[in-house]
Design brief:
Strand content: 15-25%
Radius of gyration: 17 Å
Largest sheet: 4 strands, antiparallel
Order of helices and strands: HHHHEHEEEH
Shape: globular
Helix content: 25-40%
Number of helices: 6
Amino acid sequence: MSSSALLPGGRPDSTLVGGQTDHLVFARLVAQALLAYDPSTDFTARNQDLLNAAAPAPYGDEARLAQDLTALTPSGPALDSMRKNRTTVTLDLTDVEVSVWAANRLAGIGASPGVYGIDVTGQQTITTKGGPPTAVPVALGITVACPPATTFCTLDGVLPAHLQDALGSK
């Protein structure tokens, strides 16, 4: 096999998360990219960069991922207020682990090795000009395809809750 032959998802195009092969490191980088920002953050560029790491079919759906990213992106009056008040958001991740619930679901449908559902827990600290910092607990569910399913870790989806909480009734 030539070195130019790549498995699906073999292009590590994302500068934020590209080239990773460890699913937990990848999930940590995705969470950091999504949940930590400041007034100068270019959210369109951030989202495009994360889309560059989109999982290929059959592991992902780029259009659905774009919707997930849009749902987690400040916009309109919230974005205007964030910029006007020079809001900075930092992130302290306390737990990044494979979801037992998702692992059982994936095993039940015969998912490829390297496909994971990961629960992320942490705390955002929101600081605005002239105000005290505010701590906010956060939880994300991140679905990924990593080696051996793909050459590098790729992003399938991001949900604003742990996977069982977001998908448990589906």
